[in-house]
Design brief:
alpha/beta; Putative pre-16S rRNA nuclease; nuclease; 41% helix; 20% strand; Nucleotidyltransferase, domain 5; 5 strands; five-stranded mixed beta sheet
């Protein structure tokens, strides 16, 4: 499961490690700039992820911003709350990539108008696909070897 953290909205996506695929799931509101923990609790219960990815926003030169610190705090809170490994991944240009993909879908007629919450959840899917592409696949046991 991945989160594209924001102070107004947080996009969420789910994926599959073996296939390396990810899809947008939902966009959560951030009441008062805080995570919607009851909604996140439901997602965690329903999807039972093995680990979590959170986008780490930085400037194009890699320097941190106030949102970087907030996203890192959110990632740490997720790890403590759900006792899961949480990985931070560079999210530079993920929203732009998400918007490009959504415009492509709109252009080929497979989707309707694009809203900001759509971009947030598609950006979470971009982050998760990038993360899944960066980790090795679990290896299958070699059946020719004798145990």
């Amino acid at each position: 499961m991945s989160f594209d953290y924001g102070t107004r909205r947080t996009g969420v996506a789910v994926g599959q490690r073996i296939t390396g695929t990810a899809r947008p799931l939902t966009t959560l509101g951030m009441p008062g700039g805080q995570p919607d923990w009851p909604a996140i609790d439901r997602l965690m219960r329903d999807w039972a992820p093995s680990d979590v990815v959170v986008g780490r926003p930085t400037r194009m030169d890699g320097s941190v911003t106030p949102l970087t610190t907030a996203a890192e705090g959110f990632a740490a809170a997720l790890g403590r709350r759900y006792d899961l490994p949480v990985s931070l991944i560079d999210e530079r240009l993920s929203s732009r990539e998400a918007e490009t993909e959504l415009r492509r879908q709109r252009g080929d007629g497979s989707r309707g108008p694009i809203r900001k919450p759509d971009i947030d959840q598609e950006a979470a899917a971009v982050l998760l696909r990038d993360y899944l592409a960066s980790i090795p696949l679990p290896s299958a046991p070699n059946r020719s070897e004798t145990p």
